[in-house]
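ARCHIVE CARD
Drawer: 12
Card no.: 0347
Subject: one protein chain, sequence and derived structure
Cross-reference: see card 0346
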Amino acid sequence: MKNKRLLHPKEAAHELGISTKTIHRWDEAGKLRTVRTVGNQRRIPIEEIVRLRKQGEQPTERCVLYARVSSMRQEQDGHLARQTARLREAATSRGYEVVQVITEQASSLNEKRKGMKRVLNLVGEQAVDVVLIEYPDRLVRFGFGYLEQAFGWRDVRLEVLDPPKHQEPTEELIQDMLTIVTVFAGRLYGPRAQGVRKRVETVLKECEQTEETNGTGQPHHETAP
Protein backbone atom coordinates (compact mmCIF):
# COMPACT_ATOMS: atom_id res chain seq x y z
CA MET A 1 0.00 0.00 0.00
CA LYS A 2 3.07 2.26 0.32
CA ASN A 3 3.03 5.26 -2.07
CA LYS A 4 -0.19 4.00 -3.66
CA ARG A 5 -3.06 6.48 -3.80
CA LEU A 6 -5.77 4.28 -5.34
CA LEU A 7 -6.46 0.70 -4.33
CA HIS A 8 -8.12 -2.15 -6.17
CA PRO A 9 -11.24 -3.43 -4.31
CA LYS A 10 -9.37 -6.61 -3.33
CA GLU A 11 -6.52 -4.57 -1.88
CA ALA A 12 -8.93 -2.32 0.01
CA ALA A 13 -10.81 -5.34 1.34
CA HIS A 14 -7.54 -6.86 2.56
CA GLU A 15 -6.52 -3.64 4.31
CA LEU A 16 -9.89 -3.40 6.09
CA GLY A 17 -10.26 -7.11 6.81
CA ILE A 18 -13.53 -7.43 4.90
CA SER A 19 -14.74 -9.08 1.69
CA THR A 20 -14.80 -7.46 -1.74
CA LYS A 21 -18.58 -7.88 -1.69
CA THR A 22 -18.72 -5.64 1.37
CA ILE A 23 -16.61 -3.04 -0.46
CA HIS A 24 -19.15 -3.07 -3.30
CA ARG A 25 -22.11 -2.84 -0.90
CA TRP A 26 -20.56 0.07 0.98
CA ASP A 27 -19.94 1.85 -2.30
CA GLU A 28 -23.55 1.39 -3.42
CA ALA A 29 -24.83 2.47 0.01
CA GLY A 30 -22.66 5.59 0.02
CA LYS A 31 -20.59 4.48 3.02
CA LEU A 32 -17.40 4.38 0.96
CA ARG A 33 -16.14 6.93 -1.56
CA THR A 34 -14.75 5.41 -4.73
CA VAL A 35 -13.49 6.70 -8.05
CA ARG A 36 -13.64 5.23 -11.54
CA THR A 37 -10.75 4.69 -13.89
CA VAL A 38 -10.81 5.44 -17.61
CA GLY A 39 -11.92 1.83 -18.11
CA ASN A 40 -14.75 2.34 -15.56
CA GLN A 41 -13.04 0.18 -12.93
CA ARG A 42 -13.77 0.87 -9.26
CA ARG A 43 -10.85 2.15 -7.17
CA ILE A 44 -10.69 3.23 -3.52
CA PRO A 45 -8.64 6.27 -2.45
CA ILE A 46 -6.15 5.52 0.31
CA GLU A 47 -7.70 8.35 2.34
CA GLU A 48 -10.90 6.29 2.60
CA ILE A 49 -9.01 3.40 4.15
CA VAL A 50 -7.50 5.74 6.74
CA ARG A 51 -10.90 7.32 7.46
CA LEU A 52 -12.68 3.99 7.95
CA ARG A 53 -9.92 2.72 10.20
CA LYS A 54 -10.22 5.79 12.41
CA GLN A 55 -13.99 5.34 12.60
CA GLY A 56 -13.56 1.68 13.48
CA GLU A 57 -16.12 0.76 10.85
CA GLN A 58 -17.01 -2.92 11.06
CA PRO A 59 -18.85 -4.82 8.34
CA THR A 60 -22.15 -6.47 9.18
CA GLU A 61 -22.28 -9.88 7.56
CA ARG A 62 -25.61 -11.03 6.18
CA CYS A 63 -26.69 -14.42 7.46
CA VAL A 64 -29.39 -16.95 6.62
CA LEU A 65 -30.43 -19.44 9.30
CA TYR A 66 -31.46 -22.92 8.20
CA ALA A 67 -33.18 -25.35 10.56
CA ARG A 68 -34.71 -28.72 9.69
CA VAL A 69 -36.32 -31.72 11.34
CA SER A 70 -37.18 -34.99 9.67
CA SER A 71 -40.65 -35.68 11.05
CA MET A 72 -43.85 -33.92 12.03
CA ARG A 73 -43.52 -35.38 15.52
CA GLN A 74 -40.13 -33.72 16.00
CA GLU A 75 -41.63 -30.42 14.95
CA GLN A 76 -44.60 -30.85 17.31
CA ASP A 77 -42.22 -31.73 20.16
CA GLY A 78 -40.53 -28.36 19.72
CA HIS A 79 -37.24 -29.51 18.21
CA LEU A 80 -37.55 -27.15 15.25
CA ALA A 81 -38.37 -24.15 17.44
CA ARG A 82 -35.45 -24.85 19.80
CA GLN A 83 -33.09 -25.33 16.87
CA THR A 84 -34.17 -22.00 15.39
CA ALA A 85 -33.84 -20.18 18.71
CA ARG A 86 -30.32 -21.51 19.17
CA LEU A 87 -29.34 -20.34 15.69
CA ARG A 88 -30.77 -16.87 16.34
CA GLU A 89 -28.82 -16.60 19.57
CA ALA A 90 -25.59 -17.64 17.83
CA ALA A 91 -26.13 -15.18 14.98
CA THR A 92 -26.70 -12.34 17.44
CA SER A 93 -23.60 -13.19 19.47
CA ARG A 94 -21.51 -13.22 16.28
CA GLY A 95 -22.84 -9.87 15.13
CA TYR A 96 -24.59 -11.16 12.01
CA GLU A 97 -27.52 -9.50 10.31
CA VAL A 98 -30.16 -12.22 9.91
CA VAL A 99 -31.75 -11.62 6.52
CA GLN A 100 -33.80 -14.83 6.40
CA VAL A 101 -34.81 -17.71 8.64
CA ILE A 102 -35.63 -20.87 6.70
CA THR A 103 -37.24 -23.80 8.51
CA GLU A 104 -38.74 -26.99 7.16
CA GLN A 105 -39.87 -30.48 8.06
CA ALA A 106 -38.45 -32.88 5.49
CA SER A 107 -35.99 -35.71 5.01
CA SER A 108 -32.39 -34.71 4.32
CA LEU A 109 -32.55 -37.07 1.31
CA ASN A 110 -35.42 -35.16 -0.27
CA GLU A 111 -33.87 -33.41 -3.26
CA LYS A 112 -37.00 -31.28 -3.74
CA ARG A 113 -36.82 -29.52 -0.38
CA LYS A 114 -38.14 -25.99 -0.86
CA GLY A 115 -36.15 -24.62 2.05
CA MET A 116 -32.90 -26.08 0.77
CA LYS A 117 -33.55 -24.61 -2.68
CA ARG A 118 -34.10 -21.18 -1.11
CA VAL A 119 -30.72 -21.47 0.63
CA LEU A 120 -29.02 -22.41 -2.64
CA ASN A 121 -30.68 -19.49 -4.43
CA LEU A 122 -29.45 -17.04 -1.78
CA VAL A 123 -25.93 -18.42 -2.10
CA GLY A 124 -26.05 -18.36 -5.89
CA GLU A 125 -27.21 -14.73 -5.88
CA GLN A 126 -24.58 -13.85 -3.24
CA ALA A 127 -27.40 -12.39 -1.18
CA VAL A 128 -25.80 -13.67 2.05
CA ASP A 129 -22.31 -13.98 3.49
CA VAL A 130 -22.97 -16.80 5.96
CA VAL A 131 -25.22 -19.87 6.08
CA LEU A 132 -25.63 -20.91 9.72
CA ILE A 133 -26.83 -24.41 10.67
CA GLU A 134 -26.84 -26.49 13.85
CA TYR A 135 -25.37 -29.78 12.58
CA PRO A 136 -24.00 -30.81 9.15
CA ASP A 137 -26.82 -33.32 8.59
CA ARG A 138 -29.42 -30.59 9.03
CA LEU A 139 -28.39 -29.48 5.54
CA VAL A 140 -27.27 -32.70 3.84
CA ARG A 141 -26.71 -36.30 4.89
CA PHE A 142 -23.82 -36.85 2.47
CA GLY A 143 -21.35 -34.57 0.69
CA PHE A 144 -21.20 -31.76 3.25
CA GLY A 145 -17.59 -30.98 2.34
CA TYR A 146 -18.46 -30.57 -1.33
CA LEU A 147 -21.28 -28.19 -0.47
CA GLU A 148 -18.99 -26.19 1.81
CA GLN A 149 -16.47 -25.82 -1.02
CA ALA A 150 -19.16 -24.83 -3.52
CA PHE A 151 -20.46 -22.12 -1.17
CA GLY A 152 -16.90 -20.85 -0.85
CA TRP A 153 -16.77 -20.28 -4.61
CA ARG A 154 -19.51 -17.69 -4.08
CA ASP A 155 -17.68 -16.17 -1.09
CA VAL A 156 -20.27 -17.61 1.31
CA ARG A 157 -19.22 -19.35 4.54
CA LEU A 158 -21.04 -22.41 5.80
CA GLU A 159 -20.89 -22.35 9.61
CA VAL A 160 -21.91 -25.16 11.95
CA LEU A 161 -22.70 -24.63 15.63
CA ASP A 162 -21.67 -28.16 16.58
CA PRO A 163 -18.99 -29.50 14.22
CA PRO A 164 -18.58 -33.30 14.19
CA LYS A 165 -16.30 -34.53 16.97
CA HIS A 166 -13.09 -36.35 16.10
CA GLN A 167 -13.75 -40.06 15.92
CA GLU A 168 -11.52 -43.10 15.98
CA PRO A 169 -11.48 -45.08 12.69
CA THR A 170 -13.79 -47.77 14.11
CA GLU A 171 -16.28 -45.20 15.41
CA GLU A 172 -16.23 -43.37 12.09
CA LEU A 173 -16.86 -46.61 10.19
CA ILE A 174 -19.79 -47.46 12.47
CA GLN A 175 -21.35 -44.03 11.95
CA ASP A 176 -20.94 -44.31 8.18
CA MET A 177 -22.59 -47.74 8.16
CA LEU A 178 -25.44 -46.52 10.37
CA THR A 179 -26.01 -43.57 8.06
CA ILE A 180 -26.21 -45.84 5.02
CA VAL A 181 -28.57 -48.22 6.83
CA THR A 182 -30.78 -45.33 7.95
CA VAL A 183 -30.99 -43.94 4.43
CA PHE A 184 -31.96 -47.17 2.69
CA ALA A 185 -34.12 -48.45 5.55
CA GLY A 186 -36.05 -45.19 5.39
CA ARG A 187 -36.75 -45.75 1.72
CA LEU A 188 -37.73 -49.39 2.18
CA TYR A 189 -39.53 -49.41 5.52
CA GLY A 190 -40.65 -45.84 6.14
CA PRO A 191 -41.65 -45.34 9.82
CA ARG A 192 -40.08 -48.69 10.79
CA ALA A 193 -36.62 -47.53 9.69
CA GLN A 194 -35.65 -46.38 13.19
CA GLY A 195 -36.16 -49.89 14.54
CA VAL A 196 -33.94 -51.32 11.81
CA ARG A 197 -31.25 -48.77 12.64
CA LYS A 198 -31.34 -49.67 16.34
CA ARG A 199 -30.95 -53.38 15.63
CA VAL A 200 -28.00 -52.76 13.30
CA GLU A 201 -26.45 -50.37 15.83
CA THR A 202 -26.66 -53.07 18.52
CA VAL A 203 -24.92 -55.61 16.28
CA LEU A 204 -22.14 -53.17 15.36
CA LYS A 205 -21.52 -52.28 19.01
CA GLU A 206 -21.30 -55.96 19.91
CA CYS A 207 -18.71 -56.43 17.16
CA GLU A 208 -16.72 -53.47 18.47
CA GLN A 209 -16.80 -54.84 22.03
CA THR A 210 -15.61 -58.23 20.76
CA GLU A 211 -12.61 -56.55 19.10
CA GLU A 212 -11.77 -54.70 22.31
CA THR A 213 -11.98 -57.95 24.28
CA ASN A 214 -9.58 -59.63 21.87
CA GLY A 215 -7.27 -56.68 22.42
CA THR A 216 -5.81 -56.52 18.92
CA GLY A 217 -8.59 -55.15 16.81
CA GLN A 218 -8.08 -58.22 14.62
CA PRO A 219 -10.46 -61.17 14.18
CA HIS A 220 -10.07 -63.73 16.95
CA HIS A 221 -9.18 -67.25 15.80
CA GLU A 222 -9.35 -70.30 18.02
CA THR A 223 -6.23 -72.46 17.93
CA ALA A 224 -6.53 -76.19 17.62
CA PRO A 225 -5.51 -78.18 20.72
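Annotation on reverse: The longest strand covers residues 97-105. The chain is about 50% helix and 15% strand.
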